[in-house]
Amino acid sequence: MSGFVVTDGEITRARDVGKSQAASEFRARSASYAVARDAIEIITLNGAGFVIPRALIADLHDAMPDDLGAMVLWPDGSIIEIEALDIHILVDGMIKAALPAMVPAPVLASMFAARGGAVKSGAKAQSARENGKKGGRPSGKKAA
């Protein structure tokens, strides 16, 4: 034994951090290599699926199909590991890195902008109340 002691408080904090990270990043329920597609297939914890061409994953460019078939998903769904090649890939990072190549940038931008605009905050509510006192949103000006 190394004499290193982990307290119950440290374990609780680590679990809380893990839950927070899981809520804010992609985690996988399953991950596998699809030989016919030469792609990694990911099913996320919420059941969504991604098929990411191996060509988009730099760490896998030199991997052989047999090695890819031996990939293992960590129990928390955060990392894909290929032990024989000493490769560890964050699921969240892989999906986020591949998305711009799979989805046109304007589509991604509009998705995230719409989501951001829908966020409710105290500042937005206060601003809406103040604008309401002034008669609401100004009407659009028509070009002459």
Structure description:
Strands 1-2-3 form a 3-stranded antiparallel sheet. It has a 3-stranded antiparallel sheet with strand order 4-5-6. The chain folds into 2 domains: 77 residues, Uncharacterised protein PF10387, DUF2442 (NE0471 N-terminal domain-like), CATH 3.30.2020; 30 residues, no CATH class. It is of the alpha+beta class and 144 residues long. The protein has 5 helices and 6 strands, in the order αβββαβββααα. 41% of the residues lie in helices and 19% in strands.
Mean pLDDT: 85
Q: What is the name of the CATH class of the largest domain?
A: Alpha Beta
**Radius of gyration, whole Å:** 23 Å
Total number of domains = 2
Overall structural class, as computed from helix and strand content, comes to alpha+beta
Distance between the termini: 82 Å
Task: Summarize the structure in short.
This protein has helices at 8-24, 65-69, 91-102, 105-117, 122-133, and strands at 28-34, 39-44, 49-53, 72-73, 79-82, 87-90. The protein has 144 residues and is an alpha+beta fold.
What secondary-structure arrangement, pairings included, does this model have?
Blueprint: H1 8-24, E1 28-34, E2 39-44, E3 49-53, H2 65-69, E4 72-73, E5 79-82, E6 87-90, H3 91-102, H4 105-117, H5 122-133
Antiparallel strand pairs: 1-2, 2-3, 4-5, 5-6
